[in-house]
Amino acid sequence: MTVAKAIVQLVMTVLAAIVPALAVGPLDPTAWVNIVVLAAGTVMVYNASNDIPGWNYAKLIASAVSAVAVVLATSLAGGLEATDYIQMALAAAAALGVGAIPNAPTPAARHA
After folding, report:
1. What's the total number of domains in the chain?
2. Fewest 10 Å CB contacts: which of 2, 43, 57, 101?
């Protein structure tokens, strides 16, 4: 269950590539940048450790950072299109999903 949060982020990244393409058509360069940012978010969520004292929300923070980066990349690129709104919504949903999944027990709690 330790990879569940990364799987949620990965699923949302794949959806951010597929859903806008099916709904609107071919993706523009900004949409591809958003997909790369979300993929990097998947790596960050997978590698973040919630076992460090005081960092119980490290995976949520990593996912939220990638969601904010999607919004920034989209807004800096200029005019917003339907593709951008879909990807921003999926990035936010990824952060919410990562935050909603409970953390796995720490190694000390597993053996207690």
Report:
1. 1
2. 2
